[in-house]
Design a protein that fits this description.
The structure is a single chain. This protein is of the alpha+beta class and 112 residues long. It has one domain: Roll (Nuclear Transport Factor 2, Chain: A), CATH 3.10.450. 29% of the residues lie in helices and 21% in strands. The chain has 3 helices and 5 strands. The chain has a 5-stranded antiparallel sheet, with helices on one face. Strand 3 and strand 4 form a beta hairpin. The termini are far apart. About 15% of the residues have low confidence.
């Protein structure tokens, strides 16, 4: 019998248990990070769009009511907040991008 290094196997590719968990953690982090709203997605939101349209562009909101969706970052150091307001027909009537640390980026459009 031949001694093999830990995590290896004959006839195929193998990854040690520790390496596998690192790969899973990285993939999970990328998946979660990819779900966060972007400035480009925010700029694509237009007055009159439906809630379904907004969700396709920005993803699911952090908080929601019938007339307002709020998006915040998962990183507590990033204070960026996006607010989208809807009318009774669930169409966009206003949107805002706010970041107290970068006020030059702040933008409001419509009824806010």
């Amino acid at each position: 019998m031949v001694a093999r290094p830990r995590g290896s196997r004959r006839g195929g590719i193998s990854v040690s248990g520790g390496m596998l968990w690192v790969a899973v953690a990285i993939a999970g982090g990328l998946a979660l990070g990819g779900c966060e709203f972007t400035r480009q997605g925010f700029q694509t939101v237009s007055l009159g769009q439906t809630q379904a349209d907004v969700q396709k562009l920005l993803g699911p909101p952090t908080y929601r009511t019938d007339t307002e969706w709020v998006y915040t970052r998962s990183d507590p150091r990033d204070l960026t907040k996006v607010t989208v307001r809807f009318d009774a027909e669930k169409k966009v009537v206003g949107k805002a991008w706010q970041n107290p640390e970068k006020p030059w980026e702040n933008l409001r459009e419509g009824q806010m």
